[in-house]
Amino acid sequence: MRHPGCWKMLTVAMCVALLGCLQAQELRGHVSVILLGATGDLARKYLWRGLFQLYLDEAGKDYSFSFHGAALTSTKQGQAFIAKVLESLSCPEDVAPDRCSELKGQFQRLSAYRHLATREDYMALSKDIEAQVQRGGLREAGRIFYFSVPPFAYADIARNINSSCRPGPGAWLRVVLEKPFGHDHLSAQQLATELGGFFREEEMYRVDHYLGKQAVAQILPFRDQNRKALDGLWSRHHVERVEIIMKETVDAEGRTSFYEEYGVIRDVLQNHLTEVLTLVAMELPHNISSSESVLQHKLRAFRALRGLQKGSAVLGQYQAYSEQVRREQQKPDSFHSLTPTFAGVLVHMDNLRWEGVPFILMSGKALDERVGYARILFRNQAYCVQNDEHWVADQSRCLPRQIVFYIGHGELGSPAVLVSRNLFRPSLPPESWKELGARPGLRLFGRPLSDFYAYSPVREQDAYSVLISHIFHGRKDSFVTTENLLASWGFWTPLLDGLAHEVPRLYPGGAENGHLLDFEFGGARLCFSQQQPEQLVPGPGPAPMPSGFQVLKARYRESPLISAWPEELIAKLADDIEATAVRAVRRFGAFHLALSGGSSPVPLFQQLATRHYGFPWAHTHLWLVDERCVPLWDPESNFQHLQTHLLQHIRVPYYNIHPMPVHLRQRLCAEEDQGAQTYASEISALVANSSFDLVLLGMGADGHTASLFPQSPSGLDGEQLVVLTESPSRPFQRMSLSLPLINRARKVAVLVMGRVKREITVLVSRVGHEPKKWPISGVLPTSGQLVWYMDYEAFLG
Ligand code: BG6
Predict the structure, then answer these.
(1) Binning pLDDT at 50, 70 and 90, where does residue 12 land?
(2) Which residues form the signal peptide (predicted)?
(3) In whole angstroms, what is the distance from residue 214 CA to residue 434 CA?
(4) Residue with the nearest Cα to atom 6 of ligand 1?
(5) What percent of the residues of the chain are helix, what percent strand, and what percent coil, each to the nearest 5?
């Protein structure tokens, strides 16, 4: 016996307690709760309190209990810690003081510290539990192991429990796991496989404490109890948008070593906000008390999530963050973190119910207030004739119509369910939710509280207490199953990968953030409302203020160069194109734009399609710089790219669109069909002086531009405006504007993106005019302007 003192204490405590609690009552069994990491922060703040609440709720009912606080701390220290925590426990207001002190005394006697490290320790624990149960003449009902330990300790503990501390036949085992559950899909899968080697799925309870928040736990019951009213409302036909928000005022100071690895998306969006999202969006099962069907419906909701793209998110980082990381992790002055502490993400669901409805997920540290909610905002198609002073909350169709699951904090200061009075009077279980009293002067989402039917819990309970009770009752729907966990990581991992090198927008923190982090969406993209060039590479010293940001302007091959991170670069290029277009239309009545193919311009097309409402499309002529000799409907066709990413989203007159005639008489780029000459004639006829207002080019890793490849026998000089060329890669045949025609343009923009271009960028910076070797070096407008647009990876590597 390793700790005879402890054992003796425990035996006495158990006997007294068992006798005390059992009295004459017939018990269904004994439950042992083993809290691993019993001296840690989470245990101190929430878990002991939650276990005490469990005891308050269950004492004198069907089961007897023992609570084992386990850790690696020495027995003496552990005992002292636990004694202190237990002493500080208090009962909720609805428990009479006498009853409270009696139950608290019992709980203290039932709880003991135990040093738990080796396999032998676990064997000894198991034996002790068996002996206790036997002495009490009881049957063992089950064991709960609560892992409040860092994930690296999981495997050892799991192995020890599995090999040496499982309860005997007929009794259940429940292991409770705390996040993080991995870092991405792969690591979550590995962790799940590892744990799956020790425990069965039904034995694992993965905690997401947001599922224990009262307003979150009420989402499904609310939907269920108000089915009749909601049936006609809960869909894309009526919902304008859904906001799922968790704002915090605290920052990450003191926990940057954790935070640096995770960031806000992994820390909050992947789990808490996603769980809330699925509860709002899933189809409602017939029987919401069936854990199995709730979990299955949730899984289906995951499957309906549309994949995220880089442009689906905006990221921020509070300014003091990097300095905190440097200090807490002894990093050099030059260290700058890219970890986001703020994120807004636009999510869509591809199913009949939610098609087209934006779900906005947002969370951040160092914001102006602490508040969390899921808000369902309904469309409003009413027009009210009377002055708004006469709008009456429960009658006027013009007031905002919304349902809010108010998770907590904020102006209201407590969890609540709010339903606009002009929607319907909701039904909530009266034993656990009560109507909120009047709070004159209080406004929520810009409306007085009196606009809502507002309910709050009769007894406020913290999330952990709720979840511990659900663990005890085996309510698996309040926990994250392996399948759901992997589905969630499957959804978030591509976005996380895509954003890995994204520079978050810096924000000062608190109220000073002003509108810096406001964002808006168009189509599938989300962007900050305030356009603001990002800083290049922040230097050491105090973090720059918003006014100190800049895009790098330099020169490259003696022409202006603009460099920035990809998103800002594209935004800048799109702005410049629009400005050029507006000027050209004002001066000449038309704007002639020639666009390249390939992948680099795709984000530019998307940007132009979704963000440039003032673009003079009606007066713009769109030409192709080059084309692959494939039918125009072929996915490889440059025209197809243009069509998919730009043309179908804008209104350009058909006769202003000029695809290259690569497909004539049912054949591709046949010399005899004279496609190149036809295109040249069309240009000469429509474009004054054959001088495009703007030609957008790219630069290939081999130095090609347009479809003019090194050693090209044509198109580098001479009279021809449009030529047929050969590419070293498929499809080999191409049609291209010639260098002489390109160089007649008023403006040429060369867009170069990505690390793969770094080598050629360096090389071309040094070579002279050698278009035979590097056609791009032949681009030099005769009287127009050349501007290079390079992202940092292409320019700086
Ligand atoms: C945790 C995150 O899961 O949730 C923290 O790791 C965050 O970063 C916390 O502060 C917020 O929880 P609550 O209950 O305070 O809203």
Answers:
(1) very low
(2) 1-24
(3) 13
(4) 267
(5) 40, 20, 40
Say which of 30, 209, 272, 704 is annotated catalytic: 272
Which amino acid is residue 428, in one-letter code? L
- Give the distance (Å) from ligand 1 centre to CA of residue 275: 14
**406 membership: H or E segment, kind and range:** strand 402-409
**Å from CA of 254 to ligand 1 middle:** 14
pLDDT bracket for residue 599 (50, 70, 90): confident
User: Tokens at residue 544, please?
Assistant: 């720059």
Contact 402, 418 (CB under 8 A): yes
Q: Quick one: what percent of the chain has pLDDT higher than 70? A: 94
Place of tokens 């914001």: 367
Q: What is the pLDDT of residues 537-575, one digit of tens each?
A: 344 444 444 334 345 678 899 999 999 999 889 999 999
The residue nearest atom 9 of ligand 1, judged by CA position, is 268
Buried b (16+ CB within 10 A) or exposed e, 397-421: eebebbbbbbbbbbebeebbbbbbb
- Strands (DSSP E) contained in 692-744 are 694-698, 722-726, 733-737
Model confidence pLDDT, tens digit, residues 641-672: 999 899 988 889 999 999 999 999 999 999 99
Q: Which residues of 455-481 are buried (b: 16+ CB within 10 A; e: fewer)?
A: bbbeeebbbbbbbbbbbbeebbbbbbb
Nearest CA to ligand 1 atom 15: 248
Which of 242, 187, 157, 150 minimizes the C-alpha distance to 485?
Answer: 187
Q: From ligand 1's centre to the CA of 268, what distance in Å?
A: 7
Q: Is 336 a catalytic residue?
A: no
Residue 38 CA to ligand 1 center (angstroms) comes to 20
Question: Could you identify the residue written with the tokens 């959804």?
Answer: 491
**Is a pLDDT exceeding 50 seen at residue 6?**
no
User: Which residues contact ligand 1 via a Cβ below 6 A?
Assistant: 248, 267-268, 372
The span from the CA of 490 to the CA of 598, in Å, is 29
Nearest atom of ligand 1 to the alpha carbon of 264: 8
Greater pLDDT, 498 or 8: 498
SS3 126: helix
**In contact, 212 and 218? CB cutoff 8 Å:** no
